[in-house]
Amino acid sequence: MIDKSILSAQEIEALADLPPREVLLAQLLGLLMSPATKLVRLLNEPAASLARLLNAKVQKEGKPTEASA
Question: Please, what are the averages of pLDDT over each run of 10 residues along the chain (69 residues)?
Answer without folding.
Answer: 83 90 95 91 92 92 62
